[in-house]
Amino acid sequence: MDNMLSQEEINALLQGMNPDNQEPEDDNTLTDEEKDVIGELSNISMGAASTALSTLLNRRVSITTPRVSYSTWEELSADYDRPCVFIQIYYKEGLDGSSILLIKDEDVKYITSLMMGGDGTPLGDVISELELSAISEAMNQMMGSAATSLSTLINKKVDITPPASKLIDLNDDIPDSDVEMFLKDKFVRVSFDMKIGDTIDTNIMQLYPFDFAHDIYINFMESTNGTDSTEDNTSVEEEKKGQDYTEPKLESTTQTVQASKPVAQERVAASPTKIESEDINVQQAMFQPLSGSQDSVSLPENINVIMDVPLEVRVELGRTHKSIKEILDFAPGTIIELDKLSGEPVDVLVNDKHVALGEVVVIDEAFGIRITEILDN
């Protein structure tokens, strides 16, 4: 009995196996550095996405600094409004994974109303298939811009498939599609505050599985450190001998990813280039003087060779602009008012170039145009 360990000694041994009482590493967590990187990359890429949405809606759109946290389906259901719209985003090049963009249904109604020429007033109480298609197109442009920005940060092309949207009630069970299976466990939640003009002040979320968040972090760190499997180590050593060279150093993650342009510029500046030491003989270009005057040169009259070339002649009665909503309301008997006044000459275009004005005439049972003026273009 004297050789048996007491409970205090057993606890001391267990603490010695796990220094500083740290919890074992878990695949469903991120380090502080990983959270910083994911937050900064999301901040930069969603900034590009907000610019695309602002152009699409003709409204000022601003997105605040993201907040990175963990969540479960139950916590998400308790924190977020319902119903909401899930936008599924698959990455088909550059990154291997998927994510979900979460937008409140009222915000979707406002955005789609603006896209269809409205003032933001919802078209109905329930989101229609037309509105889901419209928000999918808006998110396609937004996330396409975000993917382009992310491409610059990780130094490789990133491309996505067209996003698919669906209306989800968070009180229901977790959807069964492949992209949403990670919601059954704990996942990464990146939250943004978004303002559209002076009307909408809301919150959107982007949800990542942990393995995809790890993959984004690894790709960024590899691109920042300049790892390249095709780099010739011998030539690099020769360059170091011929010039003062400082190895690129990542001071801190937060400093490195504060803006996409500085990161790209620092990466280019830190990449060594080979300097040729040979002397190059550079001379000024010499040209012979022109003889004679250009005006005295006579060009042959050979326009006949192109006389048989066909050209498209088009007569334009007038133009107008309509919103998607107005076009969807077209029916037999609808009258469309054009920008031409009654009796005003119509435009004659040749290969889309405005060359003449004319008036409409009737020849037998066909329309025709009598040229009234040739334009001097």
Question: How would you sum up this structure, described in words?
Answer:
- There is one protein chain.
- The chain has 377 residues and is α+β, with helices and mostly antiparallel strands.
- Among the domains are: 32-220, Chemotaxis protein chec; 310-374, SpoA-like (Surface presentation of antigens (SPOA)).
- Helix content is 33%, strand content 21%.
- The strands form 2 sheets. Strands 1, 2, 3, 4, 5, 6, 7 and 8 form an 8-stranded antiparallel β-sheet that branches.
- Strand 7 and strand 8 (200-208) form a beta hairpin.
- Helix 2 (32-57) packs across helix 5.
- The longest helix is centred in the N-terminal third of the chain and has 26 residues, at 32-57.
- It is flat.
- The protein starts with 6 loop residues before the first helix and ends with a strand.
- 22% of the residues are buried.
